Amino acid sequence: MSAPSAASSFRYGVFLRPDPGTCALLTDLHLLLRQQYGLVSCAAYPPHATLAGNVPTDAPEDELTGRIGTALAGTAAFTAYNLGIEKGGGGIGFNLHDLPDGSPNPGITNLLDTVCRAMAPVAEPMDHYRANPLDPGRFRAHLSIASHELLLRPELRPEIADFVEGLGWEPPRSFTADTVSLYRFRSPDWHAQWWRSMTWDHVRSWRLEPAVAAALDAA
């Protein structure tokens, strides 16, 4: 049975899942910031690095999963590096974009390109509040710690950054990036502060090929 096509209230996201240890740390951070400051937007999502986010589409889910699965076939897992807290783009998050030498991680940028190419033919234009398509030219892979509320209350950013840094929590500095997931999101009003009422379902995940196997296949 095919899952429902995306009605007007649905959006889809394709995420890179971090390792379990990083997921646990992010969950604790998000819940702590909700309890301390009332921030809910990051806690509304599963821990992730966005590859395609809040995508409106009329394509049925079996087409979406087919497109993503075909695009990811043969894609190799890679090492992602968490280079610490970065304050930019209005939010606070862990820098997942770069290699330790400061250059962009080709594993991340290539995966973004693969997913965006798969989703582009079925993605509809969007003009929704705080939900914009990723611009690959400006994209920086990250793991969000505090997000949408800081765009509305920028005066909180320095205090929250100091609070998070003061915890002294250390996430894993690297992990094998090997799991990509598709999620279905629903909000009664994407033009309002949708993160306060958004719900989501995990649709499915794909495991990327081990790097060694992918290299042998390409040889």
UniProtKB/TrEMBL annotation:
A matching Pfam family: 2_5_RNA_ligase2
Protein name from the UniProt record: 2'-5' RNA ligase family protein
Organism: Streptomyces rhizosphaericus
Lineage: Bacteria, Bacillati, Actinomycetota, Actinomycetes, Kitasatosporales
